[in-house]
Amino acid sequence: MAQPFDPAAATAAYLAALTPAQHAKAQAYTQGGHWLLLWGALVTVAAAWLILRSGVLVRLRMRLERAGPRPWRAVAAVVVVFAVLDYVLEFPWTAYAHWWRERQYGLTSQAFGGWFGEQVLNLAISTVMLTALVGALYLLIRRAPRTWWLWGGGVTALFIGAAFILGPVYIEPLFNTYKPAPPGPVRDAVVAMARANGVPSDKIYIYNGSKQSNRYTANVSGLFGTARVAMSDTMFQQGADLAEVKGVVGHEMGHYVLNHAVRDAALFALIAMAGFFLVDRLYPWALKLTGAQGVGGIADPAGYPVLMILFAVLGLLATPLTNTVSRVAEAEADSFSLERVNEPDGMAKALVKTIAYRAATPSKLEEVIFYDHPSVGSRVRKAMDWKAAHPKTVAPPLGELPRSG
Ligand SMILES: [Zn+2]
Asked: What DSSP state is assigned to residue 42?
């Protein structure tokens, strides 16, 4: 007589794939990461305050204005000078939080030189994009001083959209090599899944993610014609089998089919809009609090560090909100994978391998505030509940999976 399938016991068995010491280490890494958010915001505030108080941006703005009013140039100069000074001031912290600590936990094998080179490249790219975005925001502040925050939300949505579209084509290849999945059972399965779910099947890549991180991961990025699913080579180095790949890729396809990129861009733009409104109201008070001399109203680019201070604080306070937007989409992508691909065990096996950087069993409160994915414990349990409710007697051929609307 076969025992009836027990989802709770099956979940516990999956979590027991890690030793108690490994779970404790994952918890130390994850909970330490929560504190890094607070310390990181404080470091950003301190760096911006130092730059503001140095008066360097006021002098820069005055010098540029002497040659006539060229607000675009003053904004561009302020953003670039601030980005470089801020990067230098924050560097010890960045190196600790994003490289040294990852090494300590065995989550990266990247040498310091390689990491630093990518940091510089990243700084250059983000400064160009930021200059355009901040330039547009200051233009709105000058033209529509009362309603700029409203239009600013729309501009932010456009920028997020542009980053989604251009990222996979122009930016990601600068950091990693993307290769189409090689012929074989993995690609055959993934292509069949893509066909069954209306995803362009020529856009399934494997990238050398192990260069930067040992995290077992996959992602979907891009929008419309540039969208693609990419699996890190770490998945295969950590022995992903076909069921795992199907479970994981089914999840990523869920993000694509359910249009999460568009929805998230819209929601993040709304959150940005609320942030701009608060920044508009809080600016005079915050400027006074910093004690900076020679800085004008919110339209003065020399006050840019005040905006950065407010964004750092508001961004920190918005963490539970932004994480929840993400977590809801992640739960939907899991459901999609279970419904369309029906590989609950493959998914559970894959999830267990992510515990190293995302502790499995946080409290509900910790999950709501800090987790941008549901916890592995609850995700594995959901897969096992699905398995209990959908005993897999004969798997339907992939091409004939039911399509829900
Ligand atoms: Zn996801």
From this structure: H
The band of 228, judged by pLDDT with boundaries at 50, 70 and 90, is confident
Around ion ligand 1, residues with a beta carbon closer than 5 Å are: 330, 333
Contacts 24+ apart (CB under 8 A), 150-155: 150/273, 150/276, 150/277, 152/272, 152/273, 152/276, 153/269, 153/270, 153/272, 153/273, 153/276, 154/269
Q: What is the pLDDT of residue 392?
A: 67
Class of residue 322 by CB neighbours under 10 A (exposed 0-12, middle 13-18, buried 19+)? middle
Q: What percent of the chain has pLDDT over 70?
A: 96
DSSP 355-387: GGGS-S---HHHHHHH-SS--HHHHHHHHHHHH
Give distance in angstroms: CA of 327 to centre of ligand 1.
Answer: 9
Which long-range contacts does 68-77 make (Cβ < 8 Å, 24+ apart)? 71/138, 71/139, 71/142, 71/301, 72/135, 72/139, 74/301, 75/131, 75/134, 75/135, 75/138, 75/301, 76/131, 76/135
DSSP annotation string for 120-140: HHHHHHHHHHHHHHHHHHHHH
Q: Which residues on adjacent β-strands are paired with residue 178?
A: 207
- How many angstroms is it from 89 CA to the middle of ligand 1? 34
The pLDDT tens digits of the residues spanning 86-138 come to: 999 999 999 999 999 999 999 999 999 999 999 999 999 999 999 999 999 99
Distance 304 CA to ligand 1 centre (A): 34
Distance 337 CA to ligand 1 centre (A): 10
- From CA 282, how far away is CA 71, in angstroms rounded? 23
Tell me, in angstroms, the distance from the centre of ligand 1 to residue 255's CA.
Answer: 7
- Region 194-210 average pLDDT: 85
For residue 185, report the distance from its CA to the centre of ligand 1, in Å. Answer: 23
pLDDT for residue 237: 86
